[in-house]
Amino acid sequence: MANVLPILRQVAPVREVFAAEHLAELARQALVAEAELTPKPGLVDRRGTGAHSDLSLDLMRRSASAIAPFFADMATAAQSMPFSNALRTEVAAIGRAAEFAMLQVTGGSNSHKGAIWILGLLVTAAGQDIESNPDTIAKGAGLLASLPDSVRPQLVSHGDMVRARYGVTGARGEAIANFPHIVHVGLPALLAARKKGCTETNSRLSALLDIMARLDDTCVLYRGGAEGLTIVQKGASDILHAGGPGSAAGDQAMLQLDHELFIRTISPGGSADILAATLFLDALERGQYAVQEDNSLSEGDPYGAN
Ligand SMILES: CC(C)(COP(=O)(O)OP(=O)(O)OC[C@H]1O[C@@H](n2cnc3c(N)ncnc32)[C@H](O[C@H]2O[C@H](COP(=O)(O)OP(=O)(O)OP(=O)(O)O)[C@@H](O)[C@H]2O)[C@@H]1O)[C@@H](O)C(=O)NCCC(=O)NCCS
Ligand SMILES: Nc1ncnc2[nH]cnc12
């Protein structure tokens, strides 16, 4: 079904929907593209495990594959019921099943909890209308996030602890505010770097650093406190001011920040999730479907970084 989408796009004038499997595959590929992007400060990448002792690139890839079918289920749900509390409840149940599948494949490590939330909401919103753009998809996803989560368990998450201590709004707040760090930070930074002639890898790294410089990442706050967040935000900002990825000073500053985060075991995991979602919406917007003309799916880095 996914492989007919480019054809549908040409012949169907309006309100054709994205195939659920296609959205899921695109989301999986965005997660793999984020994980493989190298070098990322403190994060798992092609060089190694960053500030993590329980994650690896192979695990991130397997986690992405394990959760992709749940994205397809979310898009299918979006196509079979209207925007409503019932859809929110259905998607929450699928999201929790995806978290369970993630924990099973990683042996209990949290590889993509934030990504399941963000991409799950975006895939659901994108599942409804092919004429959408990043802004309207983010708004739809934000609206869905603001509906009540009727079966929310009474467990206290790391995000809950950090929110109570530092007064930040975390992953839930990001969604309810319509994903400002994707729409107003990640995407503009990605496009600006490409326009300047940066390589695709450096454009994505620039987008990640811009996100890191501004996001109140609860993953950073939980591991490193307020001081850790300052180190991440100032460090990312300094790299960009030094010339950004691809400049000698920028690359040097990036290695220094990577080292500091490694020593302190601080990981900007929330920023990584926001970058994956940025790549997903960018690919949708550009019509860059990773389905090949011979109906196969691209291998390696399907988002084509260089
Ligand atoms: C709304 C939920 C995301 C739950 O939110 P909550 O804040 O209560 O949960 P957390 O457990 O804290 O997870 C939030 C994850 O979101 C990422 N994140 C952090 N800050 C932001 C931000 N400002 N904006 C957006 N996203 C953010 C981050 O995920 C990444 O970090 C993880 C790695 O962290 P790590 O420290 O290694 O792992 P931990 O287990 O936390 O600690 P250790 O023990 O290892 O030290 C990695 O997963 C990245 O993805 C935060 O971790 C949502 O889950 C929810 O409500 N779900 C219910 C189902 C539902 O409604 N679904 C609907 C659609 S799917
Ligand atoms: N590349 C990465 N490294 C560590 N945590 C992550 N969470 C999402 N992407 C990640």
UniProtKB/TrEMBL annotation:
Molecular function (Gene Ontology), one example: ATP binding
Entry's EC annotation: 2.4.2.52
Catalysed reaction, written as an equation: 3'-dephospho-CoA + ATP = 2'-(5''-triphospho-alpha-D-ribosyl)-3'-dephospho-CoA + adenine
Keywords: ATP-binding, Glycosyltransferase, Nucleotide-binding, Transferase
Highest taxon listed in the record's lineage: Bacteria
UniProt-listed InterPro entries: CitG, TriPribosyl-deP-CoA_syn
Entry's Gene Ontology BP terms: prosthetic group biosynthetic process
Record-linked NCBIfam families: malonate_mdcB, PRK01237.1
The protein, known as: triphosphoribosyl-dephospho-CoA synthase
Source organism: Tunturiibacter psychrotolerans
